[in-house]
Fold:
Amino acid sequence: MKPLLSFMKKEYCEAARTGKLIILLLLFVLFGIMNPAIAKLTPWLMEMTSDTIAESGLIVTNVQVDAMTSWTQFFKNIPMALIAFVLIFSDIFTKEYKSGTLLLVLTKGLSRYKVVLAKTVLLLSLWTFGYGLCYIITYGYNAYFWDNGIAHNLFHAAAAWWLFGVWVICLIVLFSSLLQNSAGVSLCASGTVLLAYFVGMLPKVRTYTPTMLMDITSLLSGAERTDTYMKAVIITVAACVVCISVSIPVINKKQF
Structure:
């Protein structure tokens, strides 16, 4: 246990030393502030551009914004935050392969499966912290300006999107165990998400795909019930377990 904790401490220190933690913090704080800010400024922006829009033959009516507007913006922006997260941490394994530091750690007695678990815990904790921070900031501003009660199933919607991010992180771990460069890891993880998205366009399998967890607009509006997402939740959790389970034997057989 002590070698594992020491390795995890080293991972967090490395993330802080390279500036990744600061970038992550600023990124999620920025998105957390942007969501209510964009919603609050929308009427003003529409008023500023009303003359230009009117010249094109369109009529601008008064725009009403509320907490739902801000939460809709939150779930539009969080994919960009996840993409940035993937790009920042896609080299979490591959940099070890190139520098040879992983071999040094293994020679000190740390089991390979513990390396996989430690790096997975690091990624999941950082994603949870960043996502939670963004959510809390948006929630606080929305409570100040409007009323969060207008958004139905808000916690369930946020939890569903968080789980989708967990699945993407597990994909990073899987492809990091298979590939030697961070670009390949990012491309393969993105390609898997796109494949799941296109498969999810088929009505009969839509509720079974992890990308279903991204489509929470109807859940926020109350048009969908939370149990509609249970199949996608179960499949996503199972997919996460499979990704980590496959990563461990692959790392065990990998030559460094």
Summary: The longest helix spans residues 112-145. The chain has eleven helices and no strands. Residues 113 and 248 are 5 Å apart (CA to CA). The radius of gyration is 21 Å.
